[in-house]
Amino acid sequence: MKPRNRFEKAVAASNGKLTALSPKAVEWAVSNVIVHIAFRTSGHNCTCGDCGAKFDHKGKGKTVCCPHCGHRLQVRDTLKRKEVQSAYFSSLEVVDGLQVQRVFLLRAVCRKGMMLKTSCMEVCRLWLNAEGKMAVTSRARTLGWYVDSFNWCTGIDLKILSEVHWVISDTYVYPRYKVLPELRRNGMRGRLPDDCHPARLMKALLTDSRIETMMKSKDLQAVAYFVSRPLDLDTCWQSYKVAARHHYRPSDYGLWCDTVRLLEQCEKDIHNAKYVCPIDLKAAHDNWLDKRNKAAEKRRSQEQMLRAKAKETDFYREKSRYFGIVISDDDIEISVLDSIEAFQAEGSSLHHCVFQCEYYAKVDSVILSAHDRQGNRIETVEFSLSQGKVIQSRGLCNSNTEYHDRIVGLVNANAYRFLEARTPA
Q1: What is the rounded distance in angstroms from the CA atom of residue 113 to the CA atom of residue 351?
Q2: CA 239, CA 241: separation in Å to the nearest integer?
């Protein structure tokens, strides 16, 4: 790809000035990026994947130290004789006043009885200037769905920055790095945040003063979270400043940001330390979530009641002739639900959908409520006028109670009363 502007021309000119990666950086990557393993068979015979030497290990721990080379190894109970690993890592350098993240692919082959073999190939380079502009030089990609589909025979040339470059550059960074003076000024020195994309971090430091503030205060956990979630930063920045003034640092920024959003939905002051600096973050989150859910449920019930009121006239015209019908025996009393409010109370008490599903609007049905002599609700009964019988009777959470058959039998035995009320005299 040909350079299209002054910045890309500078990148293309600086691209050829980079030298080979230092052996110390490769050595660090071999030690920290790949997994070092020990092959263990059922006879507790272990083979070091680094030096190829054999030793016995009968312990139950997941790691062991090789007595020959001294490397810490992860124990693998396997009969495999070969293990191949691939991993990306990066180095940060400065060339001609441009910041560059160099991305390498490290390939390691562990084979029983042989020394660990590694190879390192550079894949791409992400470039930034002091204003935060970005460009990429990369090897050409071959046709395929895999991220690693690079043509290793091509050179590293100017390309269009794609999602693949963002994915593979989210890697470990060699700790001996060099950065632009502007990045050092904005707080990028020493240990970098864990699980934070290096290029996104550098771009954010150059373009967003809020990330600079967090970086200089050494709140690396917040930096790692907000660099990858800029919308959360827009929402929670004022609350974060309040928390920082009170020396409050959440243990989980994802949970904390969710709590701030819940506070806002509950119409609480998200600039008040009383709310944004809870002692028990999880308990506070769960408390405000419960309040938000209850408020939402109350709002939905009010909206449902408004819709029901619009049908109230039709309900009374069709069902008022059945009001007053009461069926009872020694223990149970069954009466017709005679108002919209009664339907809502019935559904709320027995936790079923007689109100939400608008059974009051069913032309062919009469809904009754079965109580005991103390007034406790037992079941809700739907009587079909066209069939002249009970078509369902539901108790708490739509379950059947011990009185189910008795209730159904009582209503069916008095079906003639509904038919008489339905037919004018």
Answers
A1: 68
A2: 5
HSE (CB half, 13 Å, CA atoms) of 101?
Answer: 25
Residue 313 exposed, middle or buried by CB count within 10 Å (0-12, 13-18, 19+): exposed
Q: How many whole angstroms separate alpha carbon 47 and alpha carbon 52?
A: 6
Residue 78 and residue 154 share a domain: yes
Q: What is the mean pLDDT of the chain?
A: 91
Distance CA 305, CA 346 (A): 14
Distance of CA 12 to the CA centre of its chain: 39
> b/e for 69-97, b at 16 or more Cβ within 10 A?
eebebebbeeeeeebebebbbbbbbebee
The whole-angstrom separation of Cα 138 and Cα 168 is 11
Domain boundary (309, 324, 355) is at 309
- Asked if 347 and 297 sit in the same domain, the reply is no
pLDDT band at 149 (very low <50, low <70, confident <90, very high): confident
Global pTM? 0.76
pLDDT at position 424 is 58
CA 8, CA 305: separation in Å to the nearest integer? 63
Domain count, the chain: 4
Q: Which residues contact 409 (CB under 8 A, 6 or more apart)?
A: none
CA distance 263 to 257: 10
The answer to whether residues 134 and 127 touch, using CB atoms and an 8 Å cutoff, is yes
One domain for residues 284 and 188: no
240 to each of 37, 198, 260, 267, 273, how far by Cα in Å?
43, 23, 10, 18, 10
- 320 and 377 co-located in one domain: yes
Q: How many CA atoms lie less than 13 Å away from 162 in the CB half-sphere?
A: 11
Structural domain span for residue 161: 6-173
Cα separation, 309 vs 315, in Å, equals 9
